[in-house]
């Protein structure tokens, strides 16, 4: 016969834990929460396309926290849910439309706009490293999804802006920018493991923090980095200092948040939107 203590332990394994959760915005570049299993079940595995998604618990049940790629067309989407025992179900959700404003930037170095062949080879090599860091999956019993901005300062560019650099269309802005002087301390948005540190052509000096279950921060354009790959960091721990390395029009901190391998709006993970 199970003792009361053992019964409590068994129930805890199947009971979702309540935790702070980000704001929902089910648009391209946003996030949505989808109920995937009742509270009485073990936490399921959930997949959006090929990527596993973060699953949060609450007394009401398990919810998948899903990052929606910027290129997603509005309409119906589906998750694949793998329950205990291998049974799979499909759960639908809907993506709404959103139009992001344009941003025009001027960059003096022409190689930063139209890279030459040797530079393109460097960019491709660096991109492979960063792409691997964006899709890492580190299993955790619980992931804290409430983040803090990596630096204080004025919000100079929001997520999703359709960018034109020297009049030429370029990839949308997949993060947010905080305008701060060079040398301003830059801190970890939450606890995690340092999964990648490098100095890259476009992003400059960069740190990736793996917060667990596919939630990852990338912080770029630093003047210096104070952590190494493999380090474990605390919430708010210093990662380095702000700067203007890589392709930057001035000193600032760029922060991207990846969820199930796709860049999403970092402001959704903050307790409140940032002021401009």
Percentage beta strand? 35-45%
Number of DSSP-assigned strands: 20
CATH architecture of the largest domain: Distorted Sandwich
CATH superfamily heading of the largest domain: Glucose Permease (Domain IIA)
Shape: globular
Query: What average pLDDT do the residues reach?
Result: 88
CATH topology group of the largest domain: Glucose Permease (Domain IIA)
Notes on the structure:
A hairpin with a 2-residue loop joins strand 2 (45-48) and strand 3. The protein has helices spanning 4-14, 117-134, and strands spanning 31-38, 45-48, 51-52, 54-58, 61-67, 75-82, 88-95, 102-105, 154-157, 162-165, 168-169, 176-179, 185-187, 192-200, 204-212, 215-225, 232-233, 238-242, 253-259, 262-264. The strands form four sheets. Strands 9, 12, 13, 14, 15, 16, 17, 18, 19 and 20 form a ten-stranded antiparallel sheet that branches. It is globular, with a radius of gyration of 20 Å. It contains two helices and 20 strands. Mean pLDDT is 88; it is low at 1-18. It folds into two domains: 14-95, Peptidoglycan hydrolase domains (Immunoglobulin-like), CATH 2.60.40.1590; 102-269, Distorted Sandwich (Glucose Permease (Domain IIA)). Helices cover 11% and strands 39% of the residues. The longest helix has 18 residues, at 117-134. With 276 residues, the chain is mainly beta.
């Amino acid at each position: 016969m199970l003792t009361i203590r053992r019964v409590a332990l068994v129930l805890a394994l199947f009971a979702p834990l309540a935790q702070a959760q980000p704001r929902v915005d089910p648009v391209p570049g946003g996030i949505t929460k989808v109920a995937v299993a009742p509270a009485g079940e073990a936490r399921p595995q959930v997949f959006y396309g090929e990527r596993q998604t973060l699953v949060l618990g609450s007394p009401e049940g398990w919810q998948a926290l899903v990052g929606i790629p910027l290129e997603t067309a509005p309409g119906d989407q589906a998750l694949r849910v793998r329950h205990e025992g291998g049974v799979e179900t499909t759960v639908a959700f809907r993506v709404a439309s959103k139009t992001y404003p344009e941003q025009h930037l001027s960059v003096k170095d022409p190689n930063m706009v139209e890279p030459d062949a040797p530079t393109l080879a460097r960019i491709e090599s660096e991109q492979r490293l960063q792409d691997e860091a964006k899709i890492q999956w580190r299993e955790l019993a619980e992931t804290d999804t409430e983040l803090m901005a990596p630096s204080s300062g004025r919000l100079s560019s929001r997520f999703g802006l359709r960018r034109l650099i020297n009049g030429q269309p370029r990839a949308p802005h997949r993060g947010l920018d905080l305008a701060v002087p060079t040398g301003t301390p830059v801190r970890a948005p939450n606890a995690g493991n340092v999964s990648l540190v490098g100095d890259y052509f476009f992003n400059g000096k960069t740190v990736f923090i793996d917060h667990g279950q596919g939630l990852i921060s990338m912080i770029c354009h630093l003047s210096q980095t104070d952590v190494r790959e493999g380090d474990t960091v605390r919430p708010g721990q210093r990662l380095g200092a702000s700067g203007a390395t890589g392709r930057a029009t001035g000193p600032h901190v760029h922060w991207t948040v990846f969820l199930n391998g796709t860049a999403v709006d970092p402001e959704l993970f903050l307790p409140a939107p940032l002021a401009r």
